[in-house]
Design goal:
The protein is of the alpha+beta class. Helices cover 38% and strands 22% of the residues.
Length: 802
């Protein structure tokens, strides 16, 4: 069987058993607690929890997964063994409150042994057997199912069933969420197949887990509780690369003499032949006995595996809109890419080689995951630009590392590791890898201290008196915000607290229509009337208790808490801010329309007279694209679509809703929907219809970091102001040049031509003049031995004339 046949026959097997075959979910997870989609079950969590009803009660699929960073992290093992990957496909069959253990186990056995003809005597099943303190009971039901199966096959259940505790046989996606006991199928790949179960769960390449059958029964809470779910579900995950590797290595189970490796399958051979051509070196499949000391060939073989794995991870992640960057999942990708580039050095590959590995990914996975074909160009450009950025500092970083290593005395100091990280872009695990190879260690604690010091410096740089006010107070009641509707901009409230600090006064009310600076949107302004006197409020911020602090223009004087107050928003100001905020959402949507779905918000600033929007994108935006973006936004403004907002549970937000990494969303989120096409999670205030924005003009586009661009724009009055300003400049020019605006260009060109002509004439005249001066000088030259000597002070325009 080829790998494609393995995948297809899995899906066909379950389709024939009434499972709907569904597409893989994207690698960008829905759950805010995950870095990447890391298991087939991620997309089905709402079904398991009973929050949403599935269309069908049975499903099957192949799911793209990345396990790097976070709870399930395989990055460090990749390349050094034959069966870990950062990217892999998980084949799965699913029951949503439908069949349970008996069918799941029976079908697993049938597919493996009847359809694919795995040798029965080489298969082992693990069953959950809790240790003291582990959740739930011994899984007697699964045990009974396996016992019957092995007995029927003439195999001893006492040998072929292996118990496992919470660590090996209780599956959780993260620290919380749906979970349950699991039963895994392992295969003995020793030459004789006589390990008798002794290698199960012993991290041996000669006995690996191929299929995990999870019986989802509980919901794990953050407090450590395991509450039973209303219905029981099945979540199975088969390691596709492992099965394809076994089938290939053993030539359909006929020959167990070759060392097992996932990399033997046709999923990886296109990478290896490509790399062999590029490097002139060969992948011979050796595995290092120890990570400390590798032979040259072992390094080469590791590098082949690392590069194939990492190319798949980067390509699939970028195709799903996750770009390398500086934080969170984006930084994990950057680390993976840099790791790949470093391993490429082992093969002495030319800088820029990594992009060429996109080809084999497209070849092997494109037919299964169409987004890879659609996004190929974007993927290549992102990788090219990342590789270039790292390439610029890599050589110098390596030289420095060598020097540090020489002088290290056995351990690279935290300070040195930090310099490599901060100045040369070496992620700490990369330094670790280089150090280990030289038999050195890295002072990880020292590195962390340096990192913390840097964070502290950044915090200190951000701090101002306002911040210190924000951080004050303990467990005080949050202010009630009443101001999403502009018409609710005036309200009665009670003054509940009064803070004076560094000569500034801040007032806290029980309720307020004043938006406190958050999510890039600046705080509101307005006035407050207390006891017949009116004060101006010049800013509003939040403290850590979610109290809105209203900054007074001036001193609070004799104001007392408990006073009644009338708060009034500066409506025109708020309307200007709202226009910019809604315009930001439109701009974001337009960027995704014009540049592609990889665009993700990386930060924003929304004020009353401008907006700034930072986003992931790998290159400068052409003027024509900027024009298209602006046109798109203004067309939506003319349509005057309604803007609505509502609160919902995170898991019930619309499927099209954009939620962003780095944001910590609570269980209840606020959705802002513009015309049904732009749907984002957002806590800010917005125009009630797009027409209110009036007009948007993009003012500037620039880079702020590798892979991150910034657009500055103006909306509403500010945009009209900008247009008027430009018009008035135009008018001044047309007056000066005595022409119509339409003639300006022609007029300028004529003027420039005339200028060039005049300059030419002037040059000729000057040359002639210089010629005359030179002639005079020559005439007046005196003899000096064999030489003629002319001396004079001359003044000329430029060196050429001289
Ligand atoms: N959720 C289980 C796993 O990821 C089975 O699909 O291993």
């Amino acid at each position: 069987m080829t790998s494609a046949e393995v995948r297809q026959s899995f899906l066909d097997f379950f389709a024939a058993r009434e499972h709907r075959v569904v597409p893989s979910a994207p690698l960008m997870p829905d759950s805010p607690n995950l870095l990447f989609t890391n298991a087939g079950m991620n997309q089905f969590v709402p079904y398991f929890l009973g929050e949403r009803q599935p269309r069908d009660r049975r499903a099957a699929d192949t799911q793209k997964c990345i396990r790097a960073g976070g709870k399930h992290n395989d990055l460090e093992d990749v390349g050094f063994d034959s069966y870990h990957h950062t990217f892999f496909e998980m084949l799965g069959n699913w029951s949503f409150g439908d069949y349970f253990k008996e069918e799941a186990i029976a079908w697993a056995w049938e597919l493996l042994t009847e359809v694919w003809k795995f040798p029965k005597e080489r298969l082992y099943a693990t069953v959950y057997h809790p240790d003291d303190g582990d959740p739930a009971e011994f899984d007697a039901e699964a045990h009974a199912c396996w016992k019957a199966i092995f007995e029927k096959a003439g195999l001893d259940p006492a040998v072929h069933i292996v118990n496992g505790n919470r660590k090996d046989n209780f599956w959780m996606m993260g620290d919380t969420g749906p979970c349950g006991p699991c039963s895994e199928v392992h295969i003995d790949l020793t030459e004789k197949g006589d390990s008798g179960g002794a290698l199960v769960n012993k991290d041996s390449p000669h006995c690996i887990e191929i299929w995990n059958l999870v019986f989802i029964q509980f919901n794990a809470g953050a407090d450590g509780s395991f509450l039973p779910l209303a219905a029981k579900h099945v979540d199975t995950g088969m390691g596709f690369e492992r099965v394809a590797g076994i089938v290939a290595t053993t030539r359909n189970f006929t020959d167990f003499s070759r060392p097992p490796s996932n990399y033997n399958s046709d999923l990886f051979s296109p990478f290896f032949s490509h790399l062999e051509k590029l490097s002139g070196k060969r992948h011979t499949g050796t595995l290092p006995a120890s990570r400390e000391k590798l032979s040259d060939q072992e390094w080469i073989d590791c590098a082949f595996r690392v590069l194939a794995d990492h190319a798949r991870t980067l390509t699939c992640a970028i195709a799903d809109g996750i770009l390398p960057g500086n934080e969170g999942r984006n930084y994990v990708l950057r680390r993976i890419l840099r790791r790949a580039v470093l391993f490429g050095r082992r093969l002495e590959l030319e800088p820029g080689f990594f992009e060429s590995l996109v080809g084999p990914v497209v070849e092997t996975l494109g037919p299964v995951f169409p987004e890879i074909l659609e996004q190929e160009e974007v993927v290549r450009r992102v990788i090219r630009s990342e590789e270039e950025t790292f390439g610029r500092t890599l050589d110098r970083g390596m030289q420095l590392f060598e020097k540090m290593a020489e002088e290290s005395g056995g351990s690279i100091s935290g300070k040195d590791a930090f310099t490599l990280y901060d100045t040369f872009g070496f992620p700490p695990d990369l330094t670790q890898l280089l150090a280990r190879e030289k038999g050195l260690t890295v002072d990880e604690a020292g590195f962390e201290t340096e990192m913390e010091a840097q964070r502290e410096r950044a915090r200190a740089a951000r701090k101002s008196s306002v911040i210190s006010v924000r951080e004050g107070g303990d467990d005080l009641e949050a202010s009630q915000f009443t101001g999403y509707e502009i018409n609710a901009g005036e309200t009665d409230a009670e003054l509940v607290d009064l803070i004076s600090e560094a000569g500034e006064s801040w007032l806290v009310f029980d309720r307020t229509p004043f938006y406190a600076e958050m999510g890039g949107q600046i705080g509101d302004r307005g006035t407050v009337e207390i006891d017949g006197r009116e004060w101006r409020i010049v800013n509003t911020v939040k403290d850590r208790n979610d109290r809105h602090l209203h900054k007074l223009d001036g001193n609070a004087g004799d104001l007392r808490t408990g006073s009644r107050a009338r708060l009034r928003l500066d409506r025109p100001f708020r309307l200007r801010v709202q226009r910019h905020h809604t315009a930001t959402h439109l701009l974001h949507h337009a960027l995704r329309e014009v540049l592609g779905n990889h665009v993700r918000q990386a930060g924003s600033l929304v004020t009353d007279d401008r907006l700034r929007f930072d986003f992931s994108h790998f290159e400068g935006i052409s003027e024509s694209d900027l024009e298209r973006i602006e046109e798109w936004v203004n067309a939506r403004i003319l349509e005057n679509a309604g803007v609505r907002w509502y609160e919902t549970e995170f898991d019930k937000k619309p499927d099209t809703c954009l939620a962003f990494f780095g944001e910590k969303y609570g269980s209840v989120v606020r959705v802002v929907d513009i015309g049904g096409y732009s749907v984002e999670l957002c806590g800010g205030t917005h125009a009630s219809a797009t027409g209110e924005i009036g007009l948007v003009k993009i003012v500037h586009e620039s880079a702020i970091a590798a892979g991150t661009r910034r657009i500055e724009a103006v909306a509403g009055e500010a945009a009209v102001g900008l247009v008027n300003e430009q018009f008035s400049r135009l008018r001044t020019l047309t007056h000066k040049l005595s022409c119509q605006p339409a003639e300006l260009e022609q007029r300028m060109e004529t003027l420039l031509e005339q200028k060039a002509e005049l300059e030419k004439t002037l040059r000729q005249l000057r040359q002639k003049e210089s010629g005359n001066v030179a002639d005079d000088l020559a005439k007046n030259a005196v003899s000096h031995g064999n030489l003629r000597l002319a001396a004079a002070v001359v003044e000329v325009e430029n060196p050429q004339a001289l």
